[in-house]
Amino acid sequence: MASTANEKSSPRHKLNRYGSIYEPLKLSILHHEDEPLWEKLDRSYNAVKSTILNYQSPTTGLFPVKTCSDYKEAKVRDSLYCAASAWALAMAYRRIDDDMGRTHELEHSAIKCMRGILYCYMRQSDKVERFKQNPSPHTCLHSVFNVHTGDEVHSHDQYSHLQIDAVSLFLLYLVEMICSGLQIIYNTDEVSFIQNLVFCVERAYRVPDFGMWERGSKYNNGSTELHSSSVGLAKAALEAINGFNLFGNQGCSWSVIFVDLDAHNRNRQTLCSLLPRESRSHNTDAALLPCISYPAFAVDDDALYSQTLDKIVRKLKGKYGFKRFLRDGYRTANEDKNRRYYRPAEMKLFDGIECEFPIFFIYMIIDGVFRGNPAQVKEYQELLQDIVFQSYDGHAIIPKYYYVPADFVEAEQKKHGSQKRFPSNSGRDGMLFLWGQALYNIAKLLVDGLISPKDIDPIHRYVPRQDQRNVSMRYSNQGPIENDVVIHVALIAESQRLQVFLNTYGIQTQTPQQVEPIQIWPQQELVKAYRFLAVNKKLGLSGRPERPVGCIGTCKNALQFIKQCWKMPGRPLFLVLIREDNIKGSRFNPVLDMLASFKKGSIGGVKVHVDRLQTLISGAVVEQLDFLRVNEAEIPEFKSFEELELPRHSKVKRQTSTPNASDLEQQPEINIQEWYNRPTYEILQKFNDCGCLASQAQLASILLKKEGPDFFSRDECLKDELERIYRQAGSRKLWSVVRLAASLLTKLVDSLAPSITSVLVHGKQVTLGLFGHEEAVISNPLSPGVIKDIIYSKCSPHGEREAVLQQELVIHIGWIISNNPELFSGMLKIRIGWIVQAMKHELEIRAGDMRPQDIYQLSPSDVKQLLLDVLQPQQTGRSWLNRRQIDGSLNRTPLGFYDRVWQILERTRNGIMVAGCHLPQQPTLSDMTMYEMNFSLLVEDTLKNIVLPEYRQIIVELLMVVSIVLERNPELEFQESVDLDCLVKDAFADFQKDRGRPERAEKQEDMEVFYNTPALGKKGTSSYLTKVVMIQLLQEVKTYHP
């Protein structure tokens, strides 16, 4: 249809000026190559004014979600993009002198909106305080407000408010706009509030939310998930605001924002581990586009960016836009408009008729401009041209989505892409989709050359690789860059005598007294100091929660990481504290080699320069702690690292390290069973008279259960006595006693929660609990307190030392999976108790006919090495029983295992049974998709009741056999449920008959020979399993098709 811009206005024309709902008017793309700059800007101004600013609330500055006259809801995300559109046009108007006041108007329209959101947020400071302490959907900031008053609209129960990406987008645009010269933040109250928002966003990597589409998991059942798009926006916001002055050029040190670099790094690691997936239920999602491209540019790995983008385009791109995600029921004809949540199996109804959203074509245009890809820009411009409307005034109107009408649904589902889709403009979503309008105006300004990418990205979130060395990279996406930075190193000795000793090897050091007045603080002192950051009594904000400052924040991280990621002005300062314990025994030579490498100026390919701390600090980056001066009367006393006071003429001795205690020393001298029912005074007498730490720990455990931790023995309470046993056992390397005492004291190792999060973000689940007993499944990141309760409630009743051992393993596994993720291939559920069982099996295999080592008596380093050995692919020299025991304990599955189970389920109408668990065909196939992680987790959940590791492995082998049989016989399928236990039982009976033991064919207790039989070969387990599978299939054919 031709443009109607010059037609006379009539009632009929007014009704149709946005085009028919069946035939949207094509947008007239007029090329004005010689058009004056003022006229281009004037056209853009009229478009922004007409399609966006006319709808801005005169009171709050917010923008409504729908442009119906009586609609009063404003969403943070939509309003931010509208503000960004006005700001982008203001950047264009800055290029001309006589702008007729439009620069001021546009800038302040953006400022008004940003301050309107800030006003709405600050009225909810109590929610910010609660969320800091306990992040949950019931403590978060609201994301929808009354457009005119800023009041809350829906309660937490009525609406999915937890959207970390929206808060992060606010912080990101706040920094971008302030950096361009806008004044948005006015006073210290607002600075402290923004700092508290940062505290909330820092934990994005461990807070499942509802995501950009406000629905959480794909199933739309009210559950939250960890979303890549939310974590990515948080990462971008933290990078942008770290060290940023909210008062702009007029600010001072107390208006600078602090970001915990460790939290940022965890968000970075989490994002890299989650991508290219959006979440467990979303294999991919269009919400990732604003995360990996404009405005966040959160991905610093080009290969990962390309992989993620390719998956989005391949799976979601359509003729009219991108689907949000597969089986998205939003606004489809089959969606029940009267229900908030979907029912089980309802997802299948939306397959192939998902709405397509033109806005993602616009994201791709902007991405192409930023990345200098004109072919991409042209491709999506042409796609967009056919699906946008033209208003009566000649402005482009972007439909929110295109849908398949109810009459066409059946045909579309039979053949995807065969039916015409219709735009959303006429209907309950209003005539204008402001988010789409805003993004279109930004894209138009970029494509027409009225602004450059640098204008709307003044903090350099995206910098082409070839330009990275020419700009300040502090606020850009912090990825590895080609960096030749020299790291400054100061060596600090614990004592003067250690300094003298190291000097004999040519190692020059300083002592804490020699660096005065500079103080060296332990990390816990920094935590104490940051408690006072952003405290605001008027708003009821308590400041930074007592979270530990981890390895990056205290400069103990790998030098290689600093080299790759250093983007600050000045040199990084790396402080090495050398203690006398560091040079004892076997530690001496590695430490001396490291110090010698520092002296030479290179370590592991990283350039270093060693000098006095006073000399180096002048060139270092200084972060101010000015917030400590605000309430000096309340500031506690801080303890710096103190020099070890020793006799003046004493010398350091290179002591040999304490050897690990023998098994005999770790055994108690008493029979613990005899003491459980003895009276307290007898136990106490024995406790005081006994010199064996192992016996004391056992007796203390009995006293603890009978009398409690505050019971007094001699002059100390029982808890203090246990601390003494713990310290003494540690110094004597009595590891079994150490673990028992630590468990009785319910100690929790540092970094346990981050280690579990590291495992989770690699797409795994973690279970805690003793092998053979009830386990607790951890699917989402938890706080240390909750993890502590789980470990001690699940482990201690069945074995007190197990609670501490499982903590050690969690820490080791978190480290290993971050550095060697391939060792966990085929393991979707990391069952810590079962891994302990695998390690015990390994010790039994090594011991042969001898008594195996007690795993609880091994040193922590030996436990880690044993874990690494167990995780290695099994050696061919092992027996099949041992291999199945280890692989079964690790819950390891072959490549493609879960996809094969899906294929079995497609041809098994009554599902699969094993160990009392049923995996139904429906609603599983309707709700899920084959490659969805949630399906794989569901399969693992079905196998959880299996008791023996070797039996579990036989079940895994059986499922692979069933899949291959069905694959080779496409005409066959199971009419009844597949009972895996019955199939294994029949296979074993057949196996026993072939061995000439038919009398024992019915007895299942002696299956060890079967477990020890190779899988392949004429008499292998697979041959017996294949036979029983074929028998059941053929019997069902005879029964149902006689």
Provide a brief overview of the structure.
The protein is mostly helical and 1042 residues long. 44% of the residues are buried.
Summarize the helices and strands and which ones pair or pack.
Elements: H1 11-16, H2 37-51, E1 73-75, H3 76-93, H4 102-122, H5 125-133, E2 144-146, H6 164-179, H7 188-202, H8 228-241, H9 261-274, H10 289-292, H11 302-316, E3 322-323, E4 356-357, H12 359-370, H13 374-385, E5 389-390, E6 396-397, E7 402-403, H14 409-414, E8 422-423, H15 434-447, E9 487-493, H16 496-503, H17 523-530, H18 559-565, E10 573-578, H19 588-600, E11 602-603, E12 606-610, H20 613-616, H21 663-666, H22 680-689, H23 693-707, E13 712-713, E14 716-717, H24 718-731, H25 735-744, H26 752-760, E15 765-768, E16 776-778, H27 784-795, H28 800-819, E17 829-831, H29 832-847, H30 860-871, H31 880-890, H32 897-906, E18 912-914, E19 917-919, H33 924-927, H34 933-942, H35 949-968, E20 978-979, H36 980-994, H37 1008-1011, H38 1021-1040
Helix pairs in contact: 2-3, 2-15, 3-4, 3-6, 3-15, 5-7, 6-7, 6-8, 8-9, 12-13, 12-15, 22-23, 23-24, 23-25, 24-25, 25-28, 26-28, 27-28, 28-30, 29-31, 31-35, 32-35, 35-36, 35-38, 36-38
Description:
The protein is mainly alpha-helical and 1042 residues long. It has 38 helices and 20 strands. Strands 10-9-12-11 form a 4-stranded mixed β-sheet. Strand 5 and strand 6 form a beta hairpin. Helix 28 (800-819) crosses helix 30 and helix 35 (949-968) crosses helix 38. It is globular and about 95 Å long. It starts with 10 loop residues before the first helix and ends with a helix. The model is unreliable at 1-31 (pLDDT under 50).
